[in-house]
Amino acid sequence: MNPFNSHTPFTYGLLRQLLLLSLLIPLTAQVNAQEHLVTSQAQYQQVLKQLQPGDSIILQNGTWQDFEIVFTAKGTAKHPVTLTAQTKGSVILSGQSNLQLAGEYLQVSGLVFKDGFTQTNEVIAFKKSDTELANHSRITEVVIDNYNNPDRQMSDNWIGMYGQHNRLDHSHFVGKRNAGVTLAVRLEGEQNQQNHHRIDHNYFGPRPILGSNGGETIRIGTSHHSLTNSFTVVENNYFDRCDGEVEIISIKSGKNRIQNNVFNSSRGTLTLRHGNGNIIDSNIFFGNGIDHTGGIRIINRDQTVTNNYLEGLTGTRFGSGFTIMNGVPNSPINRYHQVVNANINHNSFINLDHIELAAGSDSERSAPPKDSTLTQNLFINPQSPLSLHDDISGLRFSDNITNFASKDLNPIIKKGISTHNITLTRAANGLLYPSDTRLAQYGVSSTLIPTTKQQTGPTWYPKSEPTVEFQSGKVIKVSNADGELGNAVAAALSGDTLLLSDGQYNIDTLLAINKTLTFKAANTHKAIVSFERPSLFEIQNNGNLQLEGLVINGQLSPDAPGNSVIRTLKWGMLTNYRFDMSNSIVEQLNNSNAFHFFDSGSRAFADTINVNNSQFHLISGDVFRLNKETDDIGIYNAEYLNLTHNQFDDIGGIVATVYRGGTDESTFGPHVLVSHNQFTHVGKGQQNQTESILNLHGVQVSLIAHNTFTDSASISVFHTVGEPQTTIANNQLINTPAPQVTEFVTQGKHTANINNNKVQTR
Questions:
Q1: Across the chain, what does the average pLDDT equal?
Q2: How far apart are CA 18 and CA 3, in angstroms?
Q3: Would you state the pLDDT for residue 747?
Q4: Band of pLDDT at residue 71, cut at 50, 70 and 90
């Protein structure tokens, strides 16, 4: 009997009872919701078995060591099941902890992961297994802070989003140092596709340079599933100095929307690597003039790029301020699909060093963009930043404006871009707009409101600066009394300066540098440091070393091959380091056949090595050995090596050997600057089998200029990958061979600019 079609009194009474019951059920569930405060892992497991919709598990404040949380339950839209902290930010998951959640309508909040790493593929996974996923679930106000596998090349992801209709918001992720994506949206299997995830209001804090592939901050999909739609929304997030690799966000699926995010001083680009029909809307990129800051890179079909603001970006090539790629004809799924039907409108491109069109053109990537339009965009630059690498007739420029001279423009572009005398005014939202209101329709909307750093992440967790600057702490005066310097190193705090009084310092222990320290002579060259161990300094995790005004003498070191003044951990540093030396003297490193100054270990990575106004005399080995990554997978030992205004005399080995092998193009370095130095009788020792004074293999940017080389070995440069740029200019070569540049790059552009070098023979 259908009660809705019957008029009997019994049916009306039954119907009234059913209606009353339907009203009482949610009220009853709400009343019976339980809060369970748990104090141990065993108690958590017991409570987990009895959870009902609306219930909460509350973890007691404190540090939970090695807690592998499996959170499985089924809530409802109105009554989710919750896992939270007793006090947000006061529950620390450390050691080998992680979190898996599976079920429906789950919510996790208030947890902090730090002081450890996960043994699994993810710190947080929206799944328990491939068949047990989380759907309609939320993680909010969660922190992952420097929670890294100590092996920097051991890959894991901090967040793995699986299932459908999940949300990640108001969370804080900072300091991912080992390989692997910070946040990966996974599309393996239909249950993870067309997922409609939302990623919003998160703070993606500084991610250091990885120095190899695998350092993306967000990846949505993979090449294998790139023709599948994800429908993921990434909005109102703040990307702060996310420098892991060339792709900050890597889109590898279709129908995603990336909107209202801010990218601050981040090296790399938002890359539409695979997948079609994505929308990039109302994002803001502030490069602040920092090296390799990039914007948006377009590949594939039907991409929309609208109302985005890009300012002060310095990147070039695939990491430029704005890039439209060439594709591969009939491309396999994992290569470069041709750009077709891209719609690029109402964007502001302001002071970008490079805009690359048909980028990557070579014998493989020979399909230029087609059927694409650029309309009502604003291009502002002192001169044209546009570089054309192939036929751009498939790009239709229409009704754009610029301030650079039309004579600098390609005829195809000139038809759709008009030149004006444009002045800019910075509005209350922090963005630049044309002062002339008649040009208001060009570039981004005046109503665009940037997401601020303060609007992202949990309010209760500080966004601390990750770098301790040299000489930012207190000054500690040190005498040359036995053991005083070693004791001062142990007692100092990060940022402190050890001020060495005049005298001879004989050090009989290895000085471990595991904090940011400066060793400074009170009077330049009056503090003379000798050492009786094979090495004086060892840079360890969290260590940064600065030397100023010292004299370092190797006479007391043992007669053993492989001595070095400074070394890193021999294998496996997790944290990047900095080394800085000025106004110092290094001498008499010659009581063995291979006594080096600076020797990097394998899997150690320097952000910067800066040496200026210093002298190196009588060294049997090499000065800088940055050549330990010989497995040829794109890894290298230093991002920047800068040698300026130094003097090198009687060096048997190589002044700098820098090695990057393999064909990976996910990184920007190494970079080598050698400028205004004097080299005399350098590189001719018996141990120097390369017969080189500088040996640069796979270096991406080299500038060797205004140096004097006398009675020295040759400069050897090997171009191996990418589009390496080498300039060797305005040097004096006296009884020194001409520089040698060997080309192994078979595709793409590479430049060896060797000019104005004065060669003399005597």
A1: 92
A2: 11
A3: 55
A4: very high
Neighbours of 185 (CB within 10 A): 28
Cα–Cα distance measured from residue 148 to residue 117, given in angstroms and rounded to the nearest whole number: 5
Q: Are strands 56-59 and 35-38 parallel, antiparallel or unpaired?
A: parallel
Please enumerate, as own/partner, the contacts of 443-446 that have beta carbons within 8 Å and a separation of 24 or more.
443/309, 443/346, 443/347, 443/348, 443/376, 443/377, 443/378, 444/282, 444/307, 444/308, 444/309, 444/346, 444/347, 444/348, 444/378, 445/282, 445/307, 445/346
User: 318-340: per-residue pLDDT in tens?
Assistant: 999 999 999 999 998 889 999 99
The pLDDT value recorded for residue 749 is: 58
What span, in angstroms and rounded, lies between the C-alpha atoms of 317 and 152? 27
pLDDT at 213: 84
Helices (H), 78-203: none
User: For 687-728, what is each residue's pLDDT tens digit?
Assistant: 767 789 999 999 999 999 999 999 999 999 999 988 899 999
**Of 131, 171, 164, which Cα lies nearest the Cα of 147?**
171
> If you compute the radius of gyration of the chain from its CA atoms, what whole number of angstroms results?
30
What is the predicted pLDDT for the residue at 748?
A: 53
Cα separation, 205 vs 172, in Å, equals 7
Residue 602 has what DSSP assignment?
B
pLDDT at residue 611 in the model = 98
Q: How many CA atoms does the CB half-sphere of 112 hold within 13 Å?
A: 21
Give the separation between CA 374 and CA 376, rounded to whole angstroms.
7
> 129 and 101 in contact (C-beta within 8 Å)?
no
Give which of 744, 750, 695, 702 is closest to 727, Cα–Cα.
702
Element (H, E) at 11: helix 9-31
User: CA angle, corner 445, sides to 318 and 235, nearest 5?
Assistant: 60
Position 26 confidence tier, pLDDT thresholds 50, 70, 90 = very low
CA 472 to chain centre: 25
Q: Residue 736 burial (CB < 10 Å; 0-12/13-18/19+)?
A: buried
